[in-house]
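Working notes for the structural subgroup meeting. M.R. asked for a predicted model of this chain before we commit to crystallization trials. I am recording the input and output together here so anyone reviewing the notebook later can reproduce the run.

Input as submitted:
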Amino acid sequence: MLDFAIFAVTFLLALVAAVLYLYPASRQAAGIPGITPTEEKDGNLPDIVKSGSLHEFLVNLHEGYGPVVSFWFGRRLVVSLGTVDALKQHINPNKTSDPFETMLKSLLRYQSDGGNVNENHMRKKLYESGVTNSLQSNFALLLKLSEELLDKWLSYPDSQHVPLCQHMLGFAMKSVTQMVMGSTFEDDQEVIHFQKNHGTVWSEIGKGFLDGSLDKSITRKKQYEDALMQLEYILKKIIKERKGRNFSQHVFIDSLVQGNLNDQQILEDSMIFSLASCIITAKLCTWAICFLTTSEEVQKKLYEEIDQVLGKDPITPEKIEQLRYCRQVLCETVRTAKLTPVSARLQDIEGKVDKFIIPRETLVLYALGVVLQDPSTWPLPHKFDPDRFDDESVMKTFSLLGFSGTQECPELRFAYMVTTVLLSVLVRRLHLLSVEGQVIETKYELVTSSKEEAWITVSKRY
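Returned structure, recorded in token form:
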């Protein structure tokens, strides 16, 4: 179904399935500016398709109607918030949940709910400790994998084009699988097998649900279901192996196994974290390097910080905290790339933003891609400028949006750390250069990526 499928490429599916189809509809937009349904059955879905993505649709909608807008998903009202001020008014009184978890659980047809407040708090603590402990315990591994990639790039002649997306996906898969699931993935064949299944599942989430083609193709649907089953089989096997045993290397799954979770919750949470962490890490690494190749000044400043903080020594977990400018580079990468352009919340009770009343059970979109390019919040919003994060108030705004601080999703926190280690290794030894004449077009889905392969070249610093 098209009306079910469109939001499969955003963070909305779980909320759409649970809210828009289960609660009574209203054709009244509660006085909120916006557009009327294009079609009785599909609402404004044809407009979203025509725009190319939900993000691009929301950009046009907010430009035309302001910071608080409405449109129709099928026969249901949807409200979108497109400024920091509007989001502040809505976030403060409303509980938030991880949009990746809700969206992916719906797509994977997982049934366990988020539990009560205490259970959610406990699981959040498990996630936090899982990220912290897995990064600390496997730091030497992460450094080794980064240096292996450096050696590979050092072997290339200066003029050779490097397929950045391909290399970053491979690096993310090797590092994330071992830090999340353990020594099974020291075997490159296991990584390749996981990457193949991960790619099949993730591709169908972004493609097969969008055009409804997955259900129309018996072959593709079987491939998707087989890939998901194989991923679950691997995770179940690893969970069983690590229960009640002590390993020298602590991985993310260990924190879940040691928590007060049942087997199904461990499976679901480890699946969500594995899927999301691999793709977010790959895309953050890709975009960070892309932007560095286009800004010689930023790359020079990053190199100088790395040289000053690390000297001749390798990076350590303690030294990461001192790489302040590197963190600014990554924050600006997330902002400029609009890494996750849309998230969603359910309006639990009737609410108000500005002068507008938002009815109970309304799906409220956070148009993060719109907010991250708002010139009233970000001067020269299309410029890649990490120095803007020198301002503490700017960082607070970024934290409010869920990209830093206490609201930061664990997958993104994980990706920040991995990317920091990789950049500290690469930038110290290499100049990262763009390919002349290359134009990188953007594809807005669950995580923003380039439409085609992004090519770079590298040259030795000494």
